[in-house]
Amino acid sequence: MKQLSKKQLIALGKLHWNSLVKFVFYGGAAGGGKSWLGCFWLMTMSWRFPGTRWFIGRDSLKDTRESVLITFGKVAKEYGYTEWKYADNEIKFNNGSAIVFLDLSFYPQKDPMFERLGSKEYTGGWIEEAGEVHFAAFDTLKSRVGRHMNAEYGIKPKILITANPKKNWLFTTFWKPFKNKMLDPAYAFIRALYQDNPFLSQDYIENMEQITDKVKRERLLKGNFDYDDNPAALCAYDDILGMFGINSVKRTGKMYLTADIARYGSDKAVILVWDGFVVIDHIMFEKSSTTDLQTAINHFIYKYNIPKDRCIADDDGVGGGVVDNCEILGFVNNSSSLLNPETNLEENYANLQTQCGYKLAEMINAREILIDLELDPDTKDEVVIEIEQLQTWKVDDDKVLRLKPKAEIKKDLGKSPDWRDALLMRMYFVYNDTAPQELEDVF
């Protein structure tokens, strides 16, 4: 009979006996035994506690049937368990227990808040391939476990989460706090690599070790969440890190200011001061009034002698008032892209924001942007994650280039990309720089 690995046993300890832990994230690399663990846990719990009700959820019912159901059959066969059958998207046990397959696909039009899960009641459950699942699904399922026979059996409500590294809510909810030793006691992360699984075939191990792509090796072999394998990404992780001093961008003495204003006061506000393409000063507001923002912008203008026609802030929401009161340029995201200054021709971008986003990515990849600031580790991580959201988006037959929309970024990160936008606006002056303005006209 197949034994479990040490890492799988640690995870089961969190799921069975640790009364503080509610959410267990197991995985972080390929080959760590994620699916076997999930199937083993739910099979044994369903067998031990008659009449209980569990779930397995992932982004597609079809994928659940084609992957999890196969593994479940192998686990049951390995341990000689035959008192189950599959029908109507459920694994049904002879003792009255059931494991329900859930479709956790995100439907932004008809069910953006996963209200279809709101009436369900489960003893516990498992989110499989969680990197593909919207955070709102996990957030909703938190309230649906612990509602079916938990009190009768004394079962603590638990959710098992399994996935490979992904730069989304798994990174911010589990990996980053775990790495910084600040993980909430209700959350647990067990990092399982293929080396932790003694039952892998030699062929599988050899295939894993022959992966040459750096990003794939970091993610699938080392379980490194800092690398993201996204073919739509415009910037490589190492090039993003290059903004923090791993390049030789020179200051020019030509000063600029860019400001991402908190839209309707709901997001962070970020104001950056540039010397050429080097960020030399900044201020960040968690919450701010227009007066705070105007005071900060005027302070920087005075301190660094920045001409107002080299200062720009987003013109959406409350930003429009700041732009008017400070008498600076307004950045309109959905306005038309600008002419290429070298060819004097139009470029094939959906709007100004997209044009500037692609230019920012181009300059980051060429190591032509430098952030010369003392940033705390959390803020630095925030900048990196937001720049990784510079991604191409749905190139249609018209071949117009687009950026991943803010709504999609908020879906993945749970926040607006404020640093990204403040950096992106500096690119406006690549396309539309002005002659030096006399400082006597500025104040």
What structural keywords apply?
443 residues; alpha/beta; Rossmann fold; Nucleotidyltransferase, domain 5; 8-stranded mixed β-sheet; disordered C terminus
Structure commentary:
With 443 residues, this protein is of the alpha/beta class. It folds into two domains: 6-221, Rossmann fold (3-Layer(aba) Sandwich), CATH 3.40.50.300; 237-441, 2-Layer Sandwich (Nucleotidyltransferase, domain 5), CATH 3.30.420. The chain is built from 16 helices and 14 strands. The strands form two sheets. It has an eight-stranded mixed β-sheet, with helices on both faces. A six-stranded mixed β-sheet has the order 13-12-9-10-11-14. Helix 2 (34-48) packs across helix 3. The protein is elongated and about 75 Å long. The model is unreliable at 435-443 (pLDDT under 50).
